[in-house]
Amino acid sequence: MGVQEEPIDPFNGDPADPAAELDDLNEDAESEPLTEEERQDVLEDLSDLEIYQALLSPTGIRGLVIECEDCHEPHYFDWDLLRGNLRHLLSSGRPRVHEPAYDPDPDHYVTWEYARGYADGVHDTLTEGSDEDAS
């Protein structure tokens, strides 16, 4: 008998295998793709994210902070990481496993709501200027 190249699973065949639930998660994710409405929401989030980054990056904002529903702690995502997570959700139908960022500076992150309000304010300001020019 030769040398085993992969490590031996110490829980192989054990009904109390702590990793057994991970297999169930994979099966569930494969059986439930995003609905068309969920897919459209993610596409809209990606589009909004581009606008928010273009407007907020020059002001020193590095990304968005999201309150995690599972652990009830803020999670800080830079623009590229959040974009990657949304694209992963589109392709796989499930979110990536995430951990809070290590020692982020909260002053460099804003909420989705803040970013949306900021973008709306910029839009309104630009629209008001064009309305006055048309008069």
Give a structural overview.
- The model has no long low-confidence stretch (mean pLDDT 83).
- Strands 2-1-3 form a three-stranded mixed beta sheet.
- It has 135 residues and is mainly α.
- 52% of the residues lie in helices and 9% in strands.
- Helix 2 packs antiparallel against helix 3 and helix 2 crosses helix 4.
- It contains four helices and three strands, in the order ααββαβα.
- The radius of gyration is 22 Å and the shape is elongated.
- Strand 1 and strand 2 form a beta hairpin.
DSSP E strands, number: 3
Major beta sheet, specifics? 3 strands, mixed
The DSSP helix count reads 4
Instruction: Return residue spans where pLDDT drops below 50 for at least 5 consecutive residues.
Output: none
Which structural class matches the secondary elements? mainly alpha
Record the strand order, biggest sheet.
2-1-3
Quaternary form: single chain
The value of Rg in angstroms is 22 Å
Helix content: 40-55%
Average per-residue pLDDT, rounded, comes to 83
N-to-C SSE string, H for helix and E for strand? HHEEHEH
Distance between the termini: 89 Å
The proportion of residues in beta strands is 5-15%
Q: What is the general shape? A: elongated
